[in-house]
Amino acid sequence: MDIILVPGFWLDASSWSQVTPSLVQAGHRVHPLTLPGLEALDAPRAGIGLREHIDAVVATVDALDGDVVLVGHSGGGAIIHGVVDARPERVARAVYVDSGPVGDGGVINDELPAVGDDVPLPPWDDFDDADLTDLTEELRADFRARAIPQPRGVAYDKQTLGNVRRFDVPVTVIACEFPTAALIGWVQSGDPHVAELADITDVEYVDLPTGHWPQFTKPVELGAAILAAVDR
After folding, report:
1. Which partner for 151 in 1, 37, 121, 226 could form a disulfide, CB atoms 3.0-4.6 Å apart?
2. For residue 41, how many C-alpha atoms fall within 13 Å in the half-sphere facing its CB?
3. Neighbour tally for 71: CB within 10 Å
C-alpha cells in the first residue's frame, strides 16, 4: 500500500522519520510530504493557501498507481480531507492523527498570530498543557529548531468541499490529547466542531494517550497505530 504522510503545521517530511520504519518494514511504500512554503525558512509563502496544499497532495495521489492511505496530523487533517473530497475513489482509508476532517466552509485555525504571509510557531506558553504532554525540554528544543513558518493562507482559508462520496471513505481517528470516549461523546451530542466526522459512515477511534505531537513523543506507538489502520 502507498501511505501518504501529511505533516501538521510548522513541520516538513522529516517530522515523520521516527514513524516510518515500521511501515516500511511491513512492506508498505511510504511518502512523507513537505508541502509548499515549508521547504525552508526562507521559502516564499505568499499566495500559498489551503487549496495549494490540497492540490500538492492530490498530485502525489495522481502520480501513484492504485489505492492510497492518507495520514494527516493536526492541520494536515483538513488537507487530507480535501484530498478525500477530490479523489474519494483512490483513498482506501483516511487516518487523522490528533485531528479530524474540517467541513465545507471551516478553517483550520484563523486565530494563530500571523506576521505577513507567515504563521510562526508560537511560544510554548500559548499551548494548552494537554498539547505539551510528554514533549520534554529536549523535544521542544528540537521541534523549535526544525520549525518552519506555516503559510498564513493554509491556516486562514476556508475549506471548499462538494463531493458527498467523501463520507463513504473509511476513517481512523487516532486520539492523543483527548480520549476517544470524549470525542465519541461530542459526535453523539451533535457538537458542530465534529459535524463533518459525524456524517462519515465508517469511523474507528483509537486511543494513543500523549500530547499533540505523537510523532515526537510516541513515534513507535504511532507507527503501530497507523500500521493497524492500514491493515484494516
Report:
1. 37
2. 5
3. 31
- The total of structural domains in the chain comes to 1
For residue 96, the surrounding DSSP H or E stretch is strand 91-97
Distance of CA 100 to the CA centre of its chain: 8
Q: What span, in angstroms and rounded, lies between the C-alpha atoms of 160 and 153? A: 14
Question: How far is 206 from 226, CA to CA, in rounded Å?
Answer: 10
Q: pLDDT digit string (tens) for 105-155?
A: 999 999 999 999 999 999 999 999 999 999 999 999 999 999 999 999 999
Nearest to 45 by CA among 145, 120, 123: 120
Write out pLDDT tens, residues 56-113. Answer: 999 999 999 999 999 999 999 999 999 999 999 999 999 999 999 999 999 999 999 9
Residue 196 CB partners (closer than 8 Å, separation 6+): 81, 100, 101, 102, 103, 106
Instruction: Please report which helix (H) or strand (E) contains residue 213, including its range.
Output: none
Tell me the residue range of the domain where 49 lies: 2-231
The CATH code of the domain that includes 200 is 3.40.50.1820
Q: Are 28 and 2 in contact (CB under 8 A)?
A: yes
